[in-house]
């Protein structure tokens, strides 16, 4: 994996001139005119305009346009930069954080943003956020939020966390407006302070955003953005070629040559930060068998999956940790462990013989998309030598969410996008988090995450994270598979979009020439 990952760890590519949210006004130097509306072909279904309800990359793209957080993370420079807060400081133990807020910000309903809205967001979300990750963050990570005056707020954490700013910069921690949410709990969270406002939303069909002319930062050129859900990659590309859309997100890897041959189209490709993995739900009795889990881990051939389900476009993952994330470790031989890759069928059979199911069994594997079904079909064939019968189930996003929320799944294939902060990995390893699809709960791992978050010594923090990864590799609640390549195709008349390998594209300054 290390050889494959000599790409920039945080890759930010601006098509023509890209600007960060709130950047200084750019001067117009020519007479070029631009379309009033830019249309983006989306590959992912979306279900909410409420930042506290969803944490997927697809939703974060919208929340980045409609809402703001106190601080932002610049993926190009890998730095925390001002958002709604212009300055901040922390106590020596990283437990108390004080922010100075902008005094010229308005919500889409005309209400002025103040420290009270930061307090309200915490008060409301810790009880009402429908996403468990968001709810737990507000309820457990943050102990108190206090308005010192209209432009200063103090946030006290339950325990010190050196990564707090990185975590808090995620779009699902955007500030909500007290008046809007109090008046309408269902639709009020859709009102933010971002450069665009929600005007029309149809679940799993389209989202229409309109420019907010009172935006505190650089006002976009484009008056409206239309995001269309087009599930099939070939259909999305055809819409781009026909001029029906201006951006085709995640084109099929098998069709990249078609895009490159079209002189009217541009293409950006990258190795994504989204790790595709298998998760064993350890609330299922059979999957509590560590030998069974390890047997599957050593029988699965990730490269075959990349070749067959991702058109050969991707890199094998050698650990359940972001390859670019602080504390990443995959030198298993140095700690006396054997990597899952390359495939080791003999070792797999040894573990299978030691398991409670030496003669095999049937396990249901669940997917939430067509391309992951293709991956499961390959895994289905790979596990036949172990007499494991893989029953494949495909659900839509809502069905998948309900199944995993109720912990009724057996094994799922899914993807998670890590951030650069080591403590971000706690989402998949600690109880109470919606992406902990393994229902994993190890007391030592939980303790190590707490210790690492408050640790200021770099070597000690990395040692804590290394120990977590050793424990997880040995217990195998997850099987890391691969990081797929992805990208975006677009009309060459487009500029201002920022594409990066987190997949969280920034369209706040996108425009298309007439």
Number of domains: 2
Q: For the CA atoms, what is the radius of gyration?
A: 23 Å
Estimate the helix proportion, in percent: 25-40%
Largest sheet: 11 strands, mixed
CATH architecture descriptor name of the largest domain: 3-Layer(aba) Sandwich
What structural category arises from helix and sheet content?
alpha+beta
Question: What is the rounded distance between the termini?
Answer: 43 Å
Global morphology: globular
Number of strands: 21
Q: DSSP strand (E) fraction?
A: 15-25%
Report on the architecture of this protein.
- By secondary structure, this protein is an alpha+beta fold.
- It folds into 2 domains: 12-228 and 492-512, D-Maltodextrin-Binding Protein, domain 2, CATH 3.40.190.10; 272-485, Dipeptide-binding Protein, domain 3, CATH 3.10.105.
- It has helices at 57-66, 115-128, 132-141, 164-168, 178-183, 233-241, 256-261, 290-299, 302-309, 345-354, 370-382, 397-405, 426-429, 443-453, 458-475; strands at 12-14, 37-42, 71-74, 79-82, 85-90, 96-101, 142-149, 152-157, 196-202, 206-211, 224-229, 247-249, 265-280, 314-316, 361-367, 388-394, 411-417, 478-491, 494-495, 498-500, 511-512.
- The strands form 5 sheets. Strands 2, 9, 10, 11, 12, 13, 14, 15, 16, 17 and 18 form an 11-stranded mixed β-sheet that branches. The chain has a 4-stranded antiparallel β-sheet with strand order 5-6-8-7. It has a two-stranded antiparallel sheet with strand order 1-20.
- The longest helix is centred in the C-terminal third of the chain and has 18 residues, at 458-475.
- The protein is globular and about 65 Å long.
- Mean pLDDT is 92; it is low at 1-20 and 22-29.
């Amino acid at each position: 994996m290390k050889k494959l990952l000599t790409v920039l760890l945080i890759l930010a590519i601006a098509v023509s001139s890209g600007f960060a949210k709130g950047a200084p006004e750019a001067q117009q130097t020519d007479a070029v005119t631009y379309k009033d509306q830019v249309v983006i072909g989306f590959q992912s279904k979306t279900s909410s305009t409420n930042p506290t309800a969803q944490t997927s990359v697809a939703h974060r793209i919208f929340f980045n346009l409609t809402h703001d957080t106190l601080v932002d993370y610049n993926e190009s420079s890998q730095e925390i930069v001002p958002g709604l807060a212009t300055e901040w400081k922390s106590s020596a133990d990283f437990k108390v954080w004080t922010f100075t807020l902008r005094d010229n910000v308005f919500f889409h309903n005309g209400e002025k943003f103040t420290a009270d809205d930061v307090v309200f967001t915490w008060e409301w979300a810790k009880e009402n956020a429908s996403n468990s990750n968001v709810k737990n963050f507000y309820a457990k990570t943050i102990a108190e939020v206090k308005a010192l005056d209209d432009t200063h707020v103090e946030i006290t954490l339950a325990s010190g966390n050196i990564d707090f700013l990185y975590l808090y910069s995620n779009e699902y921690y955007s500030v909500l407006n007290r008046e809007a949410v109090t008046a309408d709990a269902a639709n009020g969270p859709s009102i933010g302070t971002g450069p665009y406002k929600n005007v029309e939303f149809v679940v799993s069909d389209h989202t229409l955003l309109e420019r907010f002319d009172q935006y505190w930062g650089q006002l976009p050129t484009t008056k409206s953005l239309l995001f269309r859900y087009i599930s099939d990659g070939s259909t999305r590309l055809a819409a781009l070629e026909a001029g029906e859309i201006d951006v085709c997100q995640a084109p099929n890897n098998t069709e990249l040559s078609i895009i490159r041959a079209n002189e009217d189209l541009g293409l950006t490709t990258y190795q994504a930060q989204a790790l595709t993995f298998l998760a064993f739900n350890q609330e299922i009795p059979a999957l509590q068998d560590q030998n069974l889990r390890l047997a599957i881990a050593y029988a699965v051939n990730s490269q075959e999956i990349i070749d067959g389900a991702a058109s050969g476009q991707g890199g094998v993952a050698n650990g359940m940790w972001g390859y670019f994330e602080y504390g990443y470790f995959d030198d298993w031989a140095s700690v006396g462990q054997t990597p899952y890759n390359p495939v080791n069928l003999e070792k797999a059979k040894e573990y299978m013989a030691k398991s409670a199911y030496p003669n095999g069994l049937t396990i249901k594997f669940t997917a939430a998309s067509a391309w992951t079904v293709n991956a499961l079909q390959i895994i289905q064939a790979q596990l036949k030598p172990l007499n494991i019968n893989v029953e494949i189930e495909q659900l839509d996003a809502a069905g998948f969410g309900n199944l995993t929320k109720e912990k009724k799944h057996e094994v799922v294939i899914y993807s998670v996008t890590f951030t650069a902060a080591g403590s971000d990995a706690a989402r998949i390893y600690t109880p109470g988090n919606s992406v902990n699809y393994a229902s994993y709960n190890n007391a030592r791992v939980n303790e190590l995450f707490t210790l690492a978050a408050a640790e200021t010594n770099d070597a000690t923090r990395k040692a804590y994270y290394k120990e977590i990864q050793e424990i997880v590799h040995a217990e195998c609640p997850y099987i890391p598979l691969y990081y797929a390549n992805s990208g975006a195709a677009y009309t060459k008349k487009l500029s201002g979009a920022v594409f990066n390998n987190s997949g969280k594209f920034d369209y706040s300054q996108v425009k298309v020439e007439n």
